[in-house]
Design a protein that fits this description.
GO molecular function, one term: carboxy-lyase activity
Helix content: 25-40%
CATH topology of the largest domain: Pnp Oxidase, Chain A
Largest sheet: 10 strands, antiparallel
GO cellular component, one term: cytoplasm
Number of helices: 13
Number of domains: 2
Distance between the termini: 46 Å
CATH architecture of the largest domain: Roll
Shape: globular
Radius of gyration: 23 Å
CATH superfamily of the largest domain: Electron Transport, Fmn-binding Protein, Chain A
Pfam family, one: UbiD_N
Low-confidence stretches: none
Protein name: UbiD family decarboxylase
């Protein structure tokens, strides 16, 4: 019987509803990544399972596109196996806050047996390149095993466990890997505190698992909640974990491949560049902490979970858009803001850079309040660049409607506020080399002026109910 959060169980289910395609014979060097990139651009992209990869034995596989459709994402989040975009958004409404509240009821559960223990390799014999680790993009500085990974750290003072998704380049001919943790993220904070207190930081990494860990590791789970416990709340049962003998950290028992080891402040390797979620290569090759791997675990015929970013749409841009949108809407409602009708973190902005919020504007200044609050929410603050607030008659997920509202209901002189000195990123292509990673963001009020709500020109479109009745009556005209 497969363990909880087994990638193999997930694959079997996704294949059963026709959204998995097998690809044989691709080369790990750029070709595999190119096939994945072309797949993301298709109208209905499927998940791809690569096997017989050039230079590797059959059975050593790489999966891409795991969360790129509403059906796969809905299944992963245990919301249903037959959802479309509209159904997925409706099913997600209110869920992030419910999962956060319930996480304490599903603490990770320690087990002593797992298929992950089929192969246990100690430090000197570890070779990450025994796996078909791809070089995903032509301009990448190396082979990246960490794209869909789950990096486990623990706060050295309060013991809270974090799971993050950070890029990891293979180093030292497979004996090590750099971990490029984003400054300000919980995992990076843990590592820094370990350095300050003990000079080294314990780390565990899983490279193949149910994509639910990609989701929890790649979105902003609230502080002081373990992503493992949050995942438990989503699936409705505790996540089983092994305990690393060397680090004492939890290792997902359903993992295909995992390593444990130590980061040290002075143990670094040059890393990058890498094609990032902004759609650009991220800077020059520069030093990053390299993990001293003390043990590697893997199942027979292991499967890596790949999630390479790039110019949107990319591997996880759909997932991030849907999840971030739900988290932002939940956070605004939870903050007590009245009249919130929806939020959408647009995929073309990587699910972070461009956010639209629709609101029933009830009082003077509310649109600006909503915009500024959204721009600094924990779920939205990292590398946000634009927040656009629109009226309730505008669909925030429809970029055409949002631009129409900006073009007809916004006076740039008084309706756009610029906030300087906010939380940026070293991944920002606009950041000057060597400068601190600040950014600025614009809050755009694209709602009807509050004082003109009564006499603002009416929208020249039919009444929605009447249009629906016409559509029904004249259905043959609109038949495909």
């Amino acid at each position: 019987m497969e363990p909880v959060l087994s990638l193999r169980s997930w694959l079997a289910k996704v294949e059963s509803f026709g959204e998995l395609r097998h690809v044989k014979g691709a080369d790990w060097d750029v070709e595999l990544g190119a096939i994945a990139e072309l797949s993301y651009r298709q109208p209905n992209p499927v998940a791809l399972l690569f096997d017989d990869i050039t230079g590797y034995d059959s059975g050593k596989r790489v999966l891409t596109g795991s969360t790129g459709s509403p059906r796969r994402l809905g299944h992963t989040l245990r919301l249903g196996d037959d959802l479309d975009d509209v159904g997925l958004v409706a099913a997600l409404r209110g869920k992030p806050s419910q999962w956060a509240a319930a996480a304490a009821d599903y603490p990770a559960e320690t087990v002593t047996d797992s298929p992950l223990l089929e192969n246990v390799i100690d430090g000197p014999d570890v070779n990450l390149l025994s796996l078909p680790v791809p070089r995903w993009h032509t301009g990448d500085g190396g082979r990246y095993i960490g794209t869909g990974c789950f990096v486990v750290t623990r706060d050295p003072e309060d013991g809270i466990v974090n799971g993050g998704c950070y890029r990891m380049e293979v180093q030292d001919e497979g004996r090590s890997a750099t971990i490029n943790a984003v400054p300000g993220k919980h995992g990076a904070q843990h590592i820094q505190r370990w350095f300050e207190l003990h000079g080294k930081a314990p780390v565990v990494v899983s490279f193949g698992h149910d994509p639910i860990l990609l989701i929890t590791g790649g979105t902003e789970v609230p502080a002081r909640i373990s992503e493992l416990d949050y995942a438990g709340a989503i699936i409705g049962e505790p996540v089983p974990v092994l305990i690393g003998e060397h680090t004492g950290l939890p290792i997902p028992a359903g993992s295909e491949v995992a390593i444990e080891g130590w980061l040290r402040r002075d143990h670094v390797r040059n890393e990058g560049p890498f094609g990032e979620w902004t759609g650009y290569y991220s800077g020059k090759r520069r030093p990053a902490p390299a993990l001293e791997i003390v043990r590697m675990y893997h199942r027979d015929d292991p499967i890596q979970l790949g999630a390479p970013p790039g110019k949107p749409p990319h591997d996880y841009s759909y997932m991030r858009t849907v999840m971030k949108s739900a988290m932002i809407e939940d956070a605004l409602v939870g903050a007590g803001v009245a009249g919130i009708r929806g939020a959408w973190a647009h995929e073309s902005g990587g699910g972070r850079l461009f956010i639209a919020v629709s609101v029933e504007n009830r009082y003077a200044g509310q649109a600006k309040q909503v915009g500024h609050l959204t721009a600094q929410l924990p779920a939205a603050a990292y590398m946000n660049r634009f927040v656009v607030v629109v009226d309730a008659d505008v669909d925030p997920a429809d970029l055409g409607e949002v631009v129409w509202a900006m073009s007809t209901r916004c006076d740039p002189v008084k309706d756009i506020d610029i906030i300087p000195g906010t939380w940026g990123s070293k991944l920002d292509p606009m950041l000057v080399e060597g400068a601190p990673p600040y950014n600025s963001r614009a809050v755009v009020d694209a709602t009807r002026p509050f004082e003109r709500k009564a006499d603002f020109p009416a929208v020249s479109t039919g009444d929605p109910e009447y249009l629906q009745s016409v559509l029904h009556r004249w259905a043959e005209v609109f038949a495909p």
